Amino acid sequence: MSIDSLLALLGIVMASAWTPGPNNMMLAASGVNYGLRATVPHIFGVFIGFGLMIFSISLGLGEVFNTYPLLHEILRWGGALMLIWVAWKIATAKRPGEAGAATKPFTFIQAAAFQWINPKAWIMCISISAQFLHPENPVMSAAIIASISMLGGATSATGWAWFGMLLARWLHSSARLRAFNWSMAAIILAGVLVVIFGGF
Protein backbone atom coordinates (compact mmCIF):
# COMPACT_ATOMS: atom_id res chain seq x y z
CA MET A 1 0.00 0.00 0.00
CA SER A 2 1.40 3.39 -0.98
CA ILE A 3 2.05 6.20 1.50
CA ASP A 4 -0.76 8.22 -0.09
CA SER A 5 -3.17 5.32 0.37
CA LEU A 6 -2.04 4.81 3.97
CA LEU A 7 -2.59 8.48 4.78
CA ALA A 8 -6.01 8.42 3.13
CA LEU A 9 -6.93 5.27 5.06
CA LEU A 10 -5.71 6.81 8.32
CA GLY A 11 -7.72 9.98 7.71
CA ILE A 12 -10.91 8.10 6.89
CA VAL A 13 -10.52 5.75 9.85
CA MET A 14 -9.83 8.55 12.33
CA ALA A 15 -12.74 10.65 11.10
CA SER A 16 -15.11 7.67 11.17
CA ALA A 17 -13.91 6.36 14.52
CA TRP A 18 -14.20 9.69 16.35
CA THR A 19 -17.67 10.66 15.10
CA PRO A 20 -20.60 9.90 17.42
CA GLY A 21 -21.97 6.40 17.09
CA PRO A 22 -23.18 3.57 19.31
CA ASN A 23 -19.69 2.60 20.52
CA ASN A 24 -18.69 6.16 21.38
CA MET A 25 -21.96 6.96 23.15
CA MET A 26 -21.71 3.74 25.18
CA LEU A 27 -18.08 4.49 26.06
CA ALA A 28 -18.90 8.04 27.14
CA ALA A 29 -21.77 6.76 29.26
CA SER A 30 -19.50 4.10 30.78
CA GLY A 31 -16.87 6.75 31.55
CA VAL A 32 -19.51 8.86 33.28
CA ASN A 33 -21.03 6.01 35.26
CA TYR A 34 -17.99 3.84 36.07
CA GLY A 35 -14.84 5.86 35.39
CA LEU A 36 -11.98 5.29 32.95
CA ARG A 37 -10.25 2.42 34.72
CA ALA A 38 -13.39 0.27 34.93
CA THR A 39 -14.11 1.01 31.25
CA VAL A 40 -10.70 -0.29 30.02
CA PRO A 41 -12.01 -3.80 29.13
CA HIS A 42 -14.80 -2.15 27.13
CA ILE A 43 -12.23 0.02 25.32
CA PHE A 44 -10.09 -3.00 24.40
CA GLY A 45 -13.16 -4.96 23.32
CA VAL A 46 -14.18 -2.19 20.93
CA PHE A 47 -10.95 -1.69 19.05
CA ILE A 48 -9.76 -5.32 19.05
CA GLY A 49 -13.22 -6.60 18.17
CA PHE A 50 -13.51 -4.09 15.35
CA GLY A 51 -10.02 -4.92 14.10
CA LEU A 52 -10.89 -8.62 13.87
CA MET A 53 -14.18 -7.78 12.22
CA ILE A 54 -12.72 -5.57 9.51
CA PHE A 55 -9.94 -8.11 8.87
CA SER A 56 -12.55 -10.85 8.36
CA ILE A 57 -14.74 -8.71 6.14
CA SER A 58 -11.75 -7.60 4.09
CA LEU A 59 -10.98 -11.26 3.44
CA GLY A 60 -14.41 -11.98 2.05
CA LEU A 61 -17.16 -12.04 4.65
CA GLY A 62 -18.83 -9.23 2.74
CA GLU A 63 -19.30 -11.65 -0.18
CA VAL A 64 -21.42 -13.85 2.07
CA PHE A 65 -24.01 -11.08 2.23
CA ASN A 66 -24.14 -10.86 -1.55
CA THR A 67 -24.79 -14.60 -1.69
CA TYR A 68 -27.18 -14.69 1.27
CA PRO A 69 -28.96 -11.32 1.51
CA LEU A 70 -31.35 -12.70 4.15
CA LEU A 71 -28.39 -13.00 6.53
CA HIS A 72 -27.72 -9.30 6.01
CA GLU A 73 -31.32 -8.43 6.87
CA ILE A 74 -31.28 -10.62 9.99
CA LEU A 75 -28.12 -8.90 11.17
CA ARG A 76 -29.52 -5.48 10.33
CA TRP A 77 -32.73 -5.91 12.31
CA GLY A 78 -31.07 -7.86 15.12
CA GLY A 79 -28.53 -5.07 15.47
CA ALA A 80 -31.27 -2.45 15.54
CA LEU A 81 -33.13 -4.29 18.31
CA MET A 82 -29.92 -4.71 20.31
CA LEU A 83 -29.15 -0.99 19.98
CA ILE A 84 -32.65 -0.09 21.17
CA TRP A 85 -32.08 -2.31 24.22
CA VAL A 86 -28.67 -0.71 24.84
CA ALA A 87 -30.22 2.77 24.55
CA TRP A 88 -32.88 1.81 27.09
CA LYS A 89 -30.27 0.45 29.51
CA ILE A 90 -28.24 3.67 29.24
CA ALA A 91 -31.32 5.88 29.60
CA THR A 92 -32.50 4.10 32.73
CA ALA A 93 -29.07 3.53 34.29
CA LYS A 94 -28.82 4.46 37.95
CA ARG A 95 -25.82 5.98 39.66
CA PRO A 96 -23.41 3.26 40.86
CA GLY A 97 -24.24 2.39 44.43
CA GLU A 98 -27.95 3.09 44.09
CA ALA A 99 -30.37 0.22 44.57
CA GLY A 100 -30.84 -1.61 41.29
CA ALA A 101 -27.81 0.00 39.63
CA ALA A 102 -25.64 -2.03 37.29
CA THR A 103 -22.45 -3.00 39.04
CA LYS A 104 -20.05 -3.08 36.09
CA PRO A 105 -19.63 -1.83 32.52
CA PHE A 106 -19.30 -3.98 29.39
CA THR A 107 -16.69 -6.73 29.56
CA PHE A 108 -14.07 -7.25 26.84
CA ILE A 109 -16.08 -10.12 25.29
CA GLN A 110 -19.36 -8.18 25.35
CA ALA A 111 -17.78 -5.15 23.69
CA ALA A 112 -15.97 -7.25 21.06
CA ALA A 113 -19.14 -9.22 20.26
CA PHE A 114 -21.16 -6.00 20.03
CA GLN A 115 -19.13 -4.94 16.97
CA TRP A 116 -20.81 -7.66 14.91
CA ILE A 117 -24.26 -6.16 15.43
CA ASN A 118 -23.23 -2.51 15.34
CA PRO A 119 -24.54 -0.96 12.09
CA LYS A 120 -21.91 1.79 12.06
CA ALA A 121 -19.17 -0.85 12.36
CA TRP A 122 -20.59 -2.78 9.39
CA ILE A 123 -20.84 0.33 7.25
CA MET A 124 -17.26 1.28 8.07
CA CYS A 125 -15.93 -2.23 7.47
CA ILE A 126 -17.60 -2.73 4.12
CA SER A 127 -16.88 0.74 2.76
CA ILE A 128 -13.25 0.86 3.93
CA SER A 129 -12.53 -2.69 2.74
CA ALA A 130 -14.02 -1.95 -0.66
CA GLN A 131 -11.76 1.07 -1.09
CA PHE A 132 -8.44 -0.17 0.26
CA LEU A 133 -8.24 -3.95 -0.17
CA HIS A 134 -5.77 -5.00 -2.87
CA PRO A 135 -6.94 -8.25 -4.52
CA GLU A 136 -3.38 -9.18 -5.51
CA ASN A 137 -2.28 -9.21 -1.85
CA PRO A 138 -5.48 -9.59 0.20
CA VAL A 139 -4.01 -10.90 3.46
CA MET A 140 -1.37 -8.18 3.77
CA SER A 141 -3.74 -5.36 2.80
CA ALA A 142 -6.44 -6.72 5.15
CA ALA A 143 -3.87 -6.77 7.96
CA ILE A 144 -2.88 -3.16 7.22
CA ILE A 145 -6.53 -2.07 7.13
CA ALA A 146 -7.20 -3.85 10.43
CA SER A 147 -4.08 -2.38 12.08
CA ILE A 148 -4.94 1.19 11.07
CA SER A 149 -8.54 0.63 12.16
CA MET A 150 -7.42 -0.65 15.55
CA LEU A 151 -5.23 2.43 15.99
CA GLY A 152 -8.18 4.70 15.21
CA GLY A 153 -10.45 2.66 17.46
CA ALA A 154 -8.01 2.70 20.36
CA THR A 155 -7.67 6.49 20.28
CA SER A 156 -11.39 7.20 19.87
CA ALA A 157 -12.54 4.62 22.43
CA THR A 158 -10.10 5.95 25.02
CA GLY A 159 -10.93 9.55 24.15
CA TRP A 160 -14.70 9.11 24.49
CA ALA A 161 -14.39 7.15 27.75
CA TRP A 162 -12.01 9.81 29.12
CA PHE A 163 -14.43 12.54 28.04
CA GLY A 164 -17.18 10.71 29.92
CA MET A 165 -15.01 10.44 33.03
CA LEU A 166 -14.37 14.21 32.93
CA LEU A 167 -18.07 14.86 32.51
CA ALA A 168 -18.79 12.77 35.60
CA ARG A 169 -17.46 15.62 37.75
CA TRP A 170 -20.08 17.94 36.30
CA LEU A 171 -22.79 15.26 36.41
CA HIS A 172 -22.61 14.84 40.18
CA SER A 173 -26.35 15.48 40.60
CA SER A 174 -28.83 12.74 39.78
CA ALA A 175 -30.81 15.08 37.51
CA ARG A 176 -27.76 15.96 35.38
CA LEU A 177 -26.68 12.31 35.16
CA ARG A 178 -30.18 11.29 34.12
CA ALA A 179 -30.26 14.02 31.45
CA PHE A 180 -26.86 12.92 30.12
CA ASN A 181 -27.85 9.25 29.98
CA TRP A 182 -31.12 10.07 28.20
CA SER A 183 -29.19 12.26 25.71
CA MET A 184 -26.77 9.41 24.92
CA ALA A 185 -29.70 7.04 24.50
CA ALA A 186 -31.44 9.49 22.16
CA ILE A 187 -28.34 9.74 19.95
CA ILE A 188 -28.17 5.95 19.71
CA LEU A 189 -31.89 5.76 18.85
CA ALA A 190 -31.47 8.45 16.18
CA GLY A 191 -28.69 6.36 14.65
CA VAL A 192 -30.96 3.29 14.67
CA LEU A 193 -33.66 5.24 12.82
CA VAL A 194 -31.16 6.39 10.20
CA VAL A 195 -30.00 2.81 9.68
CA ILE A 196 -33.54 1.38 9.48
CA PHE A 197 -35.00 4.03 7.20
CA GLY A 198 -31.79 4.88 5.35
CA GLY A 199 -31.35 1.36 4.06
CA PHE A 200 -28.14 0.44 5.99
Outline the structure in words.
By secondary structure, the chain is an all-alpha fold. It has one domain. Helix content is 82%, strand content 0%. It contains eight helices and no strands. Helix 2 runs antiparallel to helix 3 and helix 4 runs antiparallel to helix 8. The longest helix has 33 residues. It is globular.
Blueprint (SSEs and pairs):
Layout: H1 3-18, H2 22-34, H3 36-67, H4 69-91, H5 108-114, H6 119-132, H7 138-170, H8 174-198
Helix pairs in contact: 1-7, 2-3, 2-7, 2-8, 3-4, 3-5, 3-6, 3-7, 4-8
Helix fraction bin: over 70%
Low-confidence stretches: none
- Integer count of domains: 1
Straight-line distance between termini? 29 Å
Give me the Rg, rounded: 17 Å
Q: What's the multimeric state?
A: single chain
Keywords:
mainly alpha; 8 helices
Short synopsis of the structure:
The protein has 200 residues and is mainly alpha-helical. The chain contains 8 helices and no strands. The mean pLDDT is 80.
